[in-house]
């Protein structure tokens, strides 16, 4: 079974992340979306709510699993018996950073990283921008995965 993890970065209300997972499913048997738990990091939604929202997004896709973790990404990948780590990238700068991290993961754990660009029309949309728009009461519907609603 070809299993990959999409660790730490998945934001349930950013269409770019959703599209990366959908694209990964075209060549993976299963994708585990990992929600990194960091007590010191401020998040828009608590972990349980994020897991619930992501499960709702992929309710019709049994090959997507969601789990929270508070360890190194490579340890989470090993725990899930994943052969690959999927990372979404928007820009060349993201690519350079992620390529370095991929090399470290390969050297430390022998796990390959697959870097997937978001669609060109989504490259300027980050979860930070969506959260800021939400904070100021702006309509973020164009940036949400189909069917996603913000409570």
From TrEMBL:
Subcellular location: Cytoplasm
Gene Ontology BP term (one): coenzyme A biosynthetic process
Residues binding substrate: 9, 41, 73, 87
Protein EC: 2.7.7.3
Matching Gene3D superfamilies: HUPs
Residues annotated to bind ATP: 9-10, 17, 88-90, 98, 122-128
Assigned keywords, A-Z: ATP-binding, Coenzyme A biosynthesis, Cytoplasm, Magnesium, Nucleotide-binding, Nucleotidyltransferase, Transferase
Reactions it catalyzes: (R)-4'-phosphopantetheine + ATP + H(+) = 3'-dephospho-CoA + diphosphate
Molecular-function annotations in GO: ATP binding; pantetheine-phosphate adenylyltransferase activity
Site positions (Transition state stabilizer): 17
Superkingdom to which the source organism belongs: Bacteria
Cofactors that this protein relies on: Mg(2+)
GO cellular component: cytoplasm
Top EC class for this record: transferase
Pathway stated in the Swiss-Prot or TrEMBL entry: Cofactor biosynthesis; coenzyme A biosynthesis; CoA from (R)-pantothenate: step 4/5
Subunit structure: Homohexamer.
Family (UniProt): Belongs to the bacterial CoaD family.
Known role: Reversibly transfers an adenylyl group from ATP to 4'-phosphopantetheine, yielding dephospho-CoA (dPCoA) and pyrophosphate.
Protein name in UniProt: Phosphopantetheine adenylyltransferase
Phylogenetic placement of the source organism: Bacteria, Pseudomonadati, Bacteroidota, Bacteroidia, Bacteroidales
